[in-house]
Specification:
With about 250 residues, the chain is α/β, with parallel strands linked by helices. The protein contains 9 helices and 7 strands; from the N terminus they run H-H-E-H-E-H-H-E-H-E-H-E-E-E-H-H. The strands form 2 sheets. It has a 5-stranded parallel β-sheet with strand order 2-1-3-4-5, with helices on both faces. It has a two-stranded antiparallel sheet with strand order 6-7. Helix 1 runs parallel beside helix 8 and helix 5 packs across helix 6. InterPro entries: RpiR-like_SIS (IPR035472), SIS_dom (IPR001347), SIS_dom_sf (IPR046348), SIS_GmhA/DiaA_subfam (IPR050099), UPF0309 (IPR022951). Pfam families: SIS_2. This is UPF0309 protein NQU55_05275.
């Protein structure tokens, strides 16, 4: 089997998943966008969290061209990127009980805010407790996860629950357990994960829905421009000053 054929099969698989998410999660995406719009209009703050590779779609909506300026990354040291050595430490930290509570207690997150928790499996203690503790603080939680894991795996949290069980709204990424779309002769393990492609698209769709909802209410959504186009830095500087009390990635 040629490399080109496998590459094409991956694109086909990713496109199929994107179409499923677009069609089957449209209502949840719209609802999530409305929740973000409510928060922006009401003066609240927006945070997003993901561990391991689930941190990639979280980071993709923070301080970026074409993005909503008010989305902040809720960072947990050691789990956000692969700059930690050994890289396996991040996976281990996802299973540490109590870490999420400690992070929230020292974060600016407060009642009335929105927290988006991204976790493909939704089974580890860190994302489960992040959602549980956030809701206990009066924070509205959106979970972006694969419901297949809750159907076919066991939770690693002592409660036996998954991320989906502690959210005000859940968006299903439709990713199958194992996060590998392809198999082929001569390759022992399944390969070609699509969770980052699909989840990043989901997050951008939610932001787009929020921007459209704000505009429909007559509110100009605070969207960042590219710093690589003329006037971009000046535009962004104005937004960062105007909404400085709701933006936490500058300090």
């Amino acid at each position: 089997m040629s490399e080109n054929k496998l590459a094409g099969q991956f694109f086909d698989a990713a496109i199929g998943l994107l179409q499923r998410v677009r069609d089957e999660e449209a209502g949840n995406i719209t609802a999530a966008g409305s929740l973000l719009a409510d928060t922006v209009a009401d003066g609240g703050r927006i945070f997003v969290f993901g561990a391991g590779h689930s941190s990639l779609p979280a980071q993709d909506v923070v301080y970026r061209a074409g993005g909503l300026a008010l989305i902040n990354l809720l960072a947990v040291p050691g789990v956000v990127g692969l700059d930690v050595m050994p890289a396996t430490l991040g996976s281990a930290l996802e299973r540490v009980n109590g870490l999420a509570g400690a992070v929230l207690d020292t974060s600016p997150v407060q009642a009335g805010d929105v927290l988006i928790v991204i976790s493909l499996s939704g089974r580890n203690p860190l994302p489960v407790e992040m959602a549980m503790n956030a809701r206990a603080l009066g924070v509205r939680v959106i979970g972006v996860t694969s419901l297949a894991y809750a159907e076919h795996t066991r939770s690693r949290h002592s409660s036996g629950t998954f991320l989906k069980d502690h959210c005000d709204l859940v968006i299903d990424s439709k990713i199958d357990i194992g996060d590998a779309e392809l198999t082929a002769d001569g390759i022992a393990a399944p390969f070609a994960p699509a969770s980052t492609v699909v989840t990043s698209a989901l997050m951008q769709a939610v932001v787009a829905a929020a921007a459209g909802e704000l505009a429909a209410r007559g509110i100009d959504p605070p969207m960042l421009r590219s710093g690589n186009v003329d006037g971009g830095h000046e535009w962004n500087g104005r937004l960062l000053r105007e909404y400085g009390d709701r933006i936490f990635f500058r300090h």
